[in-house]
Amino acid sequence: MATALIASPLDAEAMAALLAIKTAILKAFNFSIFEGDSELVVKAISSIGKECGCEISNIISDALSLLPL
């Protein structure tokens, strides 16, 4: 895994969410519940189909691309 520049706590929360999703997929979990401290990250990931429009939109897009629709 490439080292990413973490510019803010929000970036760190979004990267942690992305890593959690990747780990669940890698482990072939059938069901997962993800929780986080950042309301923005949680809402952005749970609002599938809506544009985030925030500084973490690229990370959110990566996370959403991994989730089944």
Explain what this protein looks like in three dimensions.
GO terms for molecular function: nucleic acid binding; RNA-DNA hybrid ribonuclease activity. This is RNase H type-1 domain-containing protein. It comes from Morus notabilis. With 69 residues, the chain is mostly helical. It has one domain. Helices cover 52% and strands 0% of the residues. It is built from 3 helices and no strands. It starts with 8 loop residues before the first helix and ends with a helix.
Which terms would index this structure?
RNase H type-1 domain-containing protein, 69 residues, mainly alpha, globular, RNA-DNA hybrid ribonuclease activity
The pLDDT mean sits at 87
Which runs of at least 5 residues are low in confidence (pLDDT < 50)? none
The portion of residues assigned to helices is 40-55%
The percentage of residues in β strands lies in: under 5%
Domains, number: 1
> Largest beta sheet, briefly?
none
- How do the helices and strands follow one another from N- to C-terminus? HHH
Shape: globular
Radius of gyration: 12 Å
Query: Which structural class do you get from the secondary structure elements?
Result: mainly alpha
Distance between the termini: 25 Å
Number of helices: 3
Number of strands: 0
Please summarize what this structure is.
The chain has 69 residues and is mainly alpha-helical. The chain is built from three helices and no strands.
